[in-house]
Amino acid sequence: MNENQVKGKLKEIGGKIQEEFGDAIDSPTQEAKGQATKVEGQAQKKVGDVQEKVEDKLDDVARRPH
């Protein structure tokens, strides 16, 4: 796992908590902020996933005999 994957997952979890808290206290503003944070975390995690795949491919290419 890389930094973007970890930070994205943590942000996603934090956003989910904020979203549910907003729902519990009947605050559409907090709920929307939580949803936005959750989506931002999901996007950051996807960036980390792509980054990891690219790094893996580069490692494979570097290991090939020349």
Short overview:
The protein has 66 residues and is mainly α. The protein has helices spanning 3-24, 28-63. 88% of the residues lie in helices and 0% in strands.
Reported for the largest beta sheet, the result is: none
Number of helices: 2
Question: What portion of residues is helical?
Answer: over 70%
Uncertain segments are none
What is the number of E strands? Answer: 0
The SSE string, one letter per element, is HH
Shape: rod-shaped
Evaluate the radius of gyration. 17 Å
Strand content: under 5%
Secondary-structure content class? mainly alpha
Q: How far is the first residue's CA from the last residue's CA? A: 29 Å
Average residue-wise pLDDT: 96
Write up what this structure looks like:
The chain has 66 residues and is mainly alpha-helical. Helix content is 88%, strand content 0%. It contains 2 helices and no strands. It has helices spanning 3-24, 28-63. The longest helix is centred in the last third of the chain and has 36 residues, at 28-63.
Summarize this structure as a short list of keywords or feature phrases.
single chain
